[in-house]
Amino acid sequence: MRSWPHKFATGFIMGGVALLLGAFTHCQRAPVSGGLTKLHPCRWPGVKEELLCGKLRVFENRQTRAGRTIDLNILVLPAFDQKTKTEPLFDLEGGPGVGSVAAGAVFYATEGREYRQHHDVVLVDQRGTGESNRLAIPIDQTPQGQLNEMYPVDYVRKMRTACEQHADLTQYTTSIAMDDLDDVRAWLGYDRIHLFGLSYGTRAALVYLRQHPEHVRTITLLGVAPTYLRMPMYHAQAADRAMNLLLEECERDPKCHESFPQIRDDWKKVLADLQRGPAQAEYRSSGKPAVTLEIQRDIFAEKIRNCLYARDRASQIPLTIHEAANGNFGPFLSQAVKPSPVDFIADGTYLCVTCAEDVPFIDSTEAAKLNAENPFGNYRVVQQIRACRLWPRSVIPAGYREPVRSSVPALIFSGNLDPVTPPERGEEVAHYLPNSRHIVIPEGGHGLEGLTNAGCLDRLIIEFIDKADAKNLDVSCVEQMKPPPFATK
Known about the structure:
By secondary structure, the protein is of the alpha/beta class. Helix content is 34%, strand content 13%. α4 links the parallel β6 and β7. The radius of gyration is 22 Å and the shape is globular.
């Protein structure tokens, strides 16, 4: 699903926390001893306090236990009271391909410090991500490069050649990575752990729960991606649903409707215009000469789909498509062309996972028929099937794609306007977790970016992991999580 790297949004950014420390009941269990002495003090950019870092060496091939090894990169943010702390929180990030350390370090040291009142927070770069033998090559960050197709053939071939110099690309699936994670748990001396999974991290958490159920105290999932999802088979379907809900909001909003009275016609028109031929648009960035960029129909739709992930970016969509329908692609380019100094997604890891766990189970004829009339089309399916033909395919365990069943306490969140993992996914997973509660965030996307009162979820998660009880949570605060106003200029 290629979620963005920031905490709790796509860009997954978790909202600020306004939490009174005495507001929750601390569960009185025996203190949990962790082997933190195996780690060494370290500093992280943007973090004032001293944290704990370490590396755990594992075999790349866990079955043969011979040959190449991987040093798993670990960062622990210790609980503030080491004498009375209980089970730690392990944070699993999205992508697949996002390193947990870079994605979570600053958050849990700043806005998310309340998580650490009674719990160590453990961040582990999954094999193939971050500093755990990352599988990636530099991407084209030029303006036109950011408007090229997702997986150009030459790029995939070059990435495979580069990654195979330091990795066996059949050894980077979720089930293997979750056995790594259990090694980290044991190495640090923890018995049971709390799991938090975000986007693809929800799949990883579910797989860990299935493989190591005796070590899971609770599981929290946001933006659920089940093991059987067949990513990206249903991306267009979920995006079309989210787009319709967004446009309905625009039509109900007086300022948005006044500014864009024919917004659905604008959406159809710009896609039809681009279907007839790519647009040419001038792009200017500060201090650089203007360049003319080509905008293809499928790329335009995919960039709009990406903007649906976060509500602050989604609030720009009506303006963007209205202007584009009238020949002005300036607002679109300001959203779509944003070079980043760091590429958080390790594309090689993304392909290792999806080319083994998802794409082989997509029937291309079925997908083409399913997405034929969809405005977002079959673009992602075509791109990933082609890329996976060029990538080694791993073997996944028998029964891997079956739903994960467990009676472990589970708290599940879905955004009603999520363009990739809609609420139906959370409902499906909850069906197999009888001790779970599924909460739909009415204005949520694939995360919380741009929503007011986003700290509501922090408070709910902290109370849940402290009490291991989702049933009795007061979740009324999710109704106060509101998106920003639509942009009209």
